[in-house]
Amino acid sequence: MHTPSPSRRTLLAGTAAAVGVVALPAGQGLARAAGTAAPAYRWRNAVIGGTGFVTGVLFHPAVRGLAYARTDIGGAYRWDDRAARWTPLTDHLGWDDWNLLGVEALAVDPAHPDRLYLALGTYAQSWAGNGAVLRSEDRGATWTRTDLSVKLGGNEDGRGTGERLLVDPRDSDTLWLGTRHDGLLRSTDRGATWAAVTGFPGTPSASGQGVTLLVAAGRTLYAGWGDSDGTSANLYRTADGTTWEAVPSRPTGTSAKVPVRAAHDRHTRELYVTYADAPGPNGQATGSVHKLATVSGKWTDVTPVKPGGTTGDGSSDTFGYGGVAVDARRPGTVVVSTNNRWAAVDTLYRTTDGGRTWTSLKDTAVLDVSETPYLKWGEQQPKFGWWIQAVAVDPYDAKHVVFGTGATLYGTRDLKHWAPQIRGLEETSVRQLISPPTGEAHLISGLGDVGVMYHERLTASPSRGMATNPVFGTVTGLAQAADRPSYVVRTGWGDHGNGAWSTDGGRSWAPFAAQPALAKDAPGPIATNTDGSVLLWTLVHWDGTKYPAQRSTDNGATWSEVSSFPKGATPLADPADPTRFYAYDSDTGTLFASTDAGRTFTARASGLPSGDSQFQLAAAPGRSGDLWLSTKWNGLYRSTDGGAGFTKLTTCWASYTVAFGRAADGAGYPAVYQVGSTEAITAVYRSDDGGETWVRINDDRHQWGWIGATIAADPRIHGRVYIATNGRGIQYGEPV
Fold it and tell me: I need a labelling partner for 684 at 20 to 30 A (CA). Which of 96, 126, 282, 290 fits?
């Protein structure tokens, strides 16, 4: 999944005090206007259903119907069995805590059912902040936080390996936390403070995996170690919590290099361990499954199918093993998953005799994805799964099995019929949003990994699934003709082409008949003028290289280079004049404009913020030349003369994205929305007076980490705004 890159968080060079820029008198700022109460808002997800990597699922061993899930960039969830849906638990994490939306591990206390622990930290890179541990006494309704001095990696390689957080079965006050680069940590005060375990034998590597799993087998603790070369120790244990030793006679070789997950059968006293040659979810080519008789120390190879064969079409059947779960009530009943098995497609194997024989559950599976149709990926039938590293068996219902994939969580109650068990869990990384002024849909979205969605309703996953012809992975551009809203264009990383156009508002699509050669590796943002007669497509390579924009007047059948367009800039169409386009060159702080339908561009205002790591140029609907520029380090600027000059609004000091919606009753200007910053907080704000005053419309319980990609406001419903999050899907709010 995706995240703000470090390049978007670099410091700004330059100020806004040069040509064409003047300052307005200070106003009320981003606090609400004097005497005006902040409006009450209701926030919900626009339903898609999953769309991200579910990296862990954990049923509570002592409470029927209680389960938790973790994701790589979208936080943690609690299962509400009565409502049959997931409740998000980490939406309170705000802008400054964006790195904590990746959940490295979770843990429950079997002896205290209301206790829950989360180890948070999305990236272990130098540019990311340190991790944190959240602890709750009420199943995640409220939290107490401890910041760590080490980094965690909930969206790094190995994010689908076993839980790295564990409550000691001998003492509920003691917790263990395995890290990637800092060894093993221990807390003796229920997570309030942490210290390194000095006797742990694993030697951390700067580029390695460190501890991959922690599991209890009775009173003995086991720790998987991901930095083995296949011959050195990769599984350790302690019987007293003090002295750790390598587990003897362990399996060796490439297929047993990285212990991925482990589960203990308390009836047979056997520990089942899945292995692969890499931590995954990508990059695995071989693996195995072994069980350890913890009393005798005997290891047995119980691998269901050895990787490395060939499929029916001759493809190499390479894969590793991922998830493992035991039936809490039936001895010897175990479920394991393959992972990274693209040729023959991943599956679950189930045994009822301790691994002597296995059955592939995929072979008899009946998949029903009617609730989330995008899971067909533009094909006739959905795939059983991929990136399967999270597997869980309900301790109170042996036939209730769930497993996570790169986009959903499948569940069954009879081991045959499977359907997404995903309600309430939304993990999309959102890139583009449009709220059309007319038509059936109030929202069209462009997403990371899952393309474009046409939302007929906000309360159900789009019935058409992801846009096809072509199918996109990640979207880079989405635009609608202001005076012809039935005309929509999109660009992105496609399977057969990188651009498409629609004449029915985004219900169906036709690919561009041709595209510039560079577009295959550089599909940037796109714009269309008011009547849809002209397209401007910016080409930006995945490595950041910028190229001249391309222009088409025949729905993408032919293209011509616009050499005067600033390379890499995002094109913006004037909402009232079909001959006008705009572009902001952030490298030089210059606004460029075209008055000949995008054939040529000339510089207008200069001296605008240059080098700003995040910015957006937007146009107020129905008004020619009414431009707003939001900048991360310098706030908001406005031009009413097509970019010849800009005025700086002093009502905010930082603005990340801006949008316009239906005007308030009696107001003469559209409602303005932004993700911006006041003296101390980055939040969502609305102005009904053209930016003179602002009110905050989200609250401390609804912050969703980094929300700076884009927003859209509804042109038909005053007060409704759509927020693009980086892992919590599309949030939409409206007054109550």
Answer: 126
